[in-house]
Amino acid sequence: MTENPLYTKHAETLARALTAIAERDYWSHYPESPSPKVYGEHAATEGKAAFEAYLGKPFPLDQPGDRVATEQSPFGIPLEIKYPHTDPETLITAATAALPGWRDAGPDARAGVCLEILDRLHQHVFELANAVHATSGQAFVMAFQAGGPHALDRGLEAVAYAYAEQTRHPATAVWSKPGKGAPLRMAKTFHVVPRGVALVVCCNTFPTWNSYPGLFASLATGNPVIVKPHPGAVLPLAVTVRYAREVLAEAGFDPNLVQLAAEATNEGLASTLATRPEVKIIDFTGSTAYGDWLEANARQAVVYTEKAGVNTVIVDSTDDFDGMCRNLAFSLSLYSGQMCTTPQNILVPAGGIDTDQGRKSFDEVATGIGEAVHKLAVVDPAKGVEIIGAIANQANQQRIDQARAAGEVVLDSIELTHPTYPAAVVRSPLLLKQRGDAEQVYGEEWFGPISFLVATDSTEASLAVFQRVVGARGALTAAVYSTDEQVLAEAERAAVAVGVNLSCNLTGGVFVNQSAAFSDFHATGANPAANAALTDGAYVANRFRVVQSRRHLAAE
Amino acid sequence: MTENPLYTKHAETLARALTAIAERDYWSHYPESPSPKVYGEHAATEGKAAFEAYLGKPFPLDQPGDRVATEQSPFGIPLEIKYPHTDPETLITAATAALPGWRDAGPDARAGVCLEILDRLHQHVFELANAVHATSGQAFVMAFQAGGPHALDRGLEAVAYAYAEQTRHPATAVWSKPGKGAPLRMAKTFHVVPRGVALVVCCNTFPTWNSYPGLFASLATGNPVIVKPHPGAVLPLAVTVRYAREVLAEAGFDPNLVQLAAEATNEGLASTLATRPEVKIIDFTGSTAYGDWLEANARQAVVYTEKAGVNTVIVDSTDDFDGMCRNLAFSLSLYSGQMCTTPQNILVPAGGIDTDQGRKSFDEVATGIGEAVHKLAVVDPAKGVEIIGAIANQANQQRIDQARAAGEVVLDSIELTHPTYPAAVVRSPLLLKQRGDAEQVYGEEWFGPISFLVATDSTEASLAVFQRVVGARGALTAAVYSTDEQVLAEAERAAVAVGVNLSCNLTGGVFVNQSAAFSDFHATGANPAANAALTDGAYVANRFRVVQSRRHLAAE
């Protein structure tokens, strides 16, 4: 078999990615700065124009069906893009038919094609960024970074793990067993066989970042992928599917290896597809309720879910009070707390904490964080909206109003006017104080820009609350602030016990809600917030199976 | 941290095993010949004496509880061994308490301890072989090989995969992100964290071979293991648990990391344990019905099942008719067809096949195989019983009588007298002819020494039957006989499509029902007969999770 030209083209990148996942130090393939110095003078303008060319029109995708338009931009950008509404039977039939050729192409060719798709998407990264911005409500720079280069890096990371896993065994081996006479010799062939049709159920808030790992892990391991976007954020996935199909067709493969499953409002298409016998892998990001439903009902499939949790910060002491407040304020404000990784509960001893500015009472800590949020998000709305973006959907908006009664207000959430998009729904973060014994309130998830400063009896009590709440509800992130190595060690033990990733004393340019591809694992799969991590061996190993054949060889 | 002395002791063996699983050519660590030349002059006698010392007594295991004795030897050997009957609450509590120390010991120490356990068991391999022989009904040499060295090799293979998976990421990394000023630097720690308590539900027929991979995969990845033996084959696992606890205690670990969960008759202990919230991993070998029950009900756990299937042989043509008949006869006779890998359906074109002895009619093929079985198993019962062993339980015995009406008898099953054990239940294999359109009969599993020679319209029709039956019911093995490379290629395509391992033209000393550790995968996880393979990356990767922490480092 001759080497696939796309494998040859991308072999060096793949090799570098394989090194990165084994070392997990810093590496990134796609530059995260949208600067013209990096992407060229015209890239931003051309990308925006490409995005605008989609508005109000049928989306250019060669899939059958009538058309649906379901998106409402949180910024009020008129979208009205009409996507093909392909029926489930057609999607499944087309995916099934595409499987054998892709399976037989082998891991090298598949890795090459996947890397070419990622590169093609990268060529259209501003178009993608505008799509994520308009549909998710993320401010533009964040939409560019998280929705573009960071998502592409996560996709590449998944391809690297998938490749490593598929090639950890040889394609053929000679087995030669010594015996009394001539050795018994057999030739063995090991086929990498995909599970079947893969389904990716995407979310509203991070349409590409949360879906690329599953999409590329399944595709790289030989499974045709049906991409079911959230009805509120179809465009980023439609763009993704468009260019994926383009690359697949150019490379001589069936474009139906990647299909878009756009749905009408309240159609429930995810459930229809997820329970089809042909669907053998599901990746889902979204609510705990629906993730649990998938795990319980899509029993024919391997199901990877990232659900909700109660992210927690333990504040014990700090040698940089201002840095701590600024860092937490940014984490609470970024994308209006609509990240699955945003801290919700900040546990502070009721008796206050030691800081570089002397002893700070509980209320002073609360005020310090509240003022930092106010400064970042509210004082200058034109700058603030570039951090907090817009509220992605009505449910999140309503939850803010409902939350106001759930504690004592430290910093109220107010409506802000977006200087560029007058119709945008913009709300500043809400900070509440709560007593430590009100666990029935703060022990639940309050998704959106809603956080609790919880007054605990002590750091020891904070650690107990942390273990109890995260053990029961899960979490995607945790953080601790302490100048005491023993407290840091205890927090780390507690984090290991409840299976959540921990950030210690973040006061600078790294934030608890951000994870770096190729180095940080996103989620652990060890607590109720997610049953898998992005990305590790377990995330890819069960997306394919090995089927072997053996036959005798003549004695040597 | 200083290197664990058991890791140091076994590092070379571990390294060799890691090479073997990556190359999958021939390797074995534990010699499979029970010869005194290999094991020493007294090993067999001493092992038998050690086995006999257990009979009729309380088994020496320091676990609390009253005592149960449930075993009936298929050979009629009086067992009456009384095992501790520890209640589920005590087992779970003890396992949970043992977890943290084992988790914190890390992958190196755990691998060292696991290899020491395997070596300790190997020192007692004749004791183990007698236990397997007496409880399963396997003839002694087979009980020695499959229950001893081959099981130990499979255990070592699992430890190697577990070690590779846990160490594919570094324990620590420095992340240094270049920027405008000094790079952002963080120290990252990656903790390998076990899932929780692991349960191994063992079978009657291969008490050690089928349980060691799961037992050692879970233990090596940090999970305390509760071993629930089949009530009919407790001793091999009691011996295993005894020496495992001995090694654990010597190495300074909690012996409750490995516990025996012996049960009273009809207690249903597996279900009680399997649905406990603390149990996070289950390995099961046995019936499809109970495997399906576990998958549906033990939803808090990752469940690995090896269930039943309809193993199939496609006979198209052969250049060694006698060799084919002999080889198949051995596979049908070995341990009275009570292997999950024994062929059940032999698909032969009704119009006959081409052979090195000219054209053979369907009936001549049936007769050829039948005569070969007769010669092997019946003609000289003293030799025959060393292949067919005894019938493991009453259900298998009854099924033979029931099966007699399920087709036209080619070779009847008769009762044989065991020269050593007059009370043994010994039955020769039953061969039946069936029409190709009687799929409702041969399309179901008939466990035990029951096989069908199915007359199909053609090899093409055989391939269709194969795909349909294995697709619906699963299979652990498949074989094809053909002199036509195109037919072999088609059979391989069909095997890949339904996800079953295929053996081609076995006429010598390799049999379709045997798989070699470190080279052959047992089961694929790609058809209904099993949801996992022994052993690959997917089998170990989800038995632990990685939990990370990160903190700032000063700029360099």
Automatic annotation (TrEMBL), chains A, B:
One of its GO terms (biological process) is L-proline catabolic process to L-glutamate. One of its GO terms (molecular function) is L-glutamate gamma-semialdehyde dehydrogenase activity. This is Phenylacetic acid degradation protein PaaN. One of its GO terms (cellular component) is cytoplasmic side of plasma membrane. The lineage of its organism: Bacteria, Bacillati, Actinomycetota, Actinomycetes, Micromonosporales. Keywords: NAD, Oxidoreductase. Residues 87-501 form the Aldehyde dehydrogenase domain.
